[in-house]
Design goal:
It is a single chain. This protein is of the alpha/beta class. The protein is built from 25 helices and 16 strands. A hairpin with a 4-residue loop joins strand 8 and strand 9.
Amino acid sequence: MPESTYTVGFLYTFQMCTSFVLAFFLYEYFKDVDKGFVKYWGLAFTGLAVKYLALACQNFTPHIADTAWLKVIIAFITQIGAYTFALFFILGFLAALKKSPIIFKHQRWLLGLVLTFSLATSFVFAFDVNAAFNRFYIRVSLLDFILSGVFLAVAILLMNSQKRFLAAKVMVVICLLFSARYLICSFLTVVMLRENNFAQIELIFRYFDFACYTLLGVNLMIWMQGAERSAAEVAINRAKYMGKHDLLTGALNREQVIENIPLAISTATDKNLKLAIYLIDLKRFKFINDTYGLKIGDLVLGKVAKRLKQSVLLPQVIGRISGDSFVFAIEIGDEGQLEKAAQHLHDVISRAYRVNNQEIHLQASVGYCLAPSDGDEAENLLHKANLALFRAENKNIPSLRYSAGMQADGSHLPAAEKAIRLGIQRKQFVLYFQPQLNLVSNRIEGVEALVRWQHPEKGLLQPDSFLPDFEALGLNSVLDGYVLELACQKLANWYQSFKRRLTIAVNVSAAEFQDPALVSKIQGLLVKYQVPSKYLELEITENVVITDIESAMDTIVTLQNMGIKVSIDDFGTGYSSLSYLRDLPIDKIKIDRSFITDFARNDSDLTIVKSMIKLSHGLGKRVLAEGVENQDQLALLRKLGCDAVQGFYINRPLTEEKLVSQLSRRE
């Protein structure tokens, strides 16, 4: 065996070992990050290692003829390894850059094509003693030409992408070098194969390969670190954005509306203009949600916000302050423009919405006021615009400007209070129950109690139809007490009738949670209905805690000492969530549905949800995800280690009868 053959054989052996080591690290990294492109790159370097293993065997067996079966099989393995590397290398970049998703659905066909092509290139002229040059052209020259194209394609992909971190730029250079190297080598193997110095030139290329493939693998691992940092930066920026904006529509949230209105007033005043504040409420939006589904409803809200942002009136402030209510503030020089602007809003909103091949029509009620004529404090101005909106809805007119008489007008409230108290007395407020699925046991672990008003004249009313009146009348605590007692009553009835215990989660308002008598009320209910405390769970929002964190913590600790679980509802919608989660002695967090809606397709949401679950588990807290509406979301939450879920995909809110029937079937 010539010395040069040994040298090349050992060089291939080193390259094989290096490739296997890189593949191993890529696989280990894939276990941690679960990114598809990392898996593809690991497979690519595995293919490369197999190629170099076969080439090493070929150089260590020069005494065996090239037409022998052993050499043909070695050539076949070499071709498979090389083309497998090419396939998974480019697939990895397509996945990393989120390109051509259709390709990934046909991976098996592509692998079959690689196998077939490898067989063809290995066995054509395989046993013809006089076809050595033809074999070389097919197995080497053609392979080099294809690899040159693969590396050039990756370089072009990277140059056209938005990846700006250093590893991506270095990768472009490496890919261009490899593309040039393989193209030159493909050319040289055709024109210089019979030259005496071709073997020395080929050896130079092999040393080049050893250095550059090692650099390529190291750079891929650096790339992954850069990609993780980039995803983390996106997640951080998204969290900051969410602290100021409504996630669903991109409009300002209530806190930012209140902060921006005084600035807009000041700017308008400097121009000798006034600021008109419009409060917009979409009519019958619940009908849209019930008819077309929550997903369609969310898309429509996003389109409404987009239209408001694109208004020719050049709004200074656009915000979403509740479910289907928006704020729209513009500068005006003449009060005569107020009504025209209101009509413009009706025209903008009433244009048909095309969503998922459905044509949806909306109408709105609008209440508005003028600053500084009607005041200069944001809360006061929003309150006055809301009074005008309420009057417009009561009178069934499209829009109305605030007037001083509305401030004291609470004509509907006495009637509303009478109806509410009568409804509580006659037990017209009923509970619906939304099951919560434990993802470990795959069994229903509890339900969330959701209140509805079975109105004798208006039918079944959703909370958004009556909760504002409860709040205006200061009756939130009355409703909370009613729901808590009804929940304990249901727990007792279920046990007496079916010998079945099931945890019920009850939402508690800020007013009730901050009531010093809350603990004693709950103790009394548990004793009255003989309910073990562990089957009652209280859900509070982040805002309840932020208002008075020390008092909230004391109450939570007291309740937990009684055996009652406390969870944070709609977690993540508050900007300071992560800063105080560490200190709160809560049992569980409920991730808000806004994070779940698109997280299966959105890397930023996925990063946030993954971080929430990991952080919560690290702090010893369970995690429940709300708003699960499809199998992809459920499967991904299982994979991320989420403890429990609820949402329409698991079950819609059920009446007591349907819940009991369903539980009986499960048993």
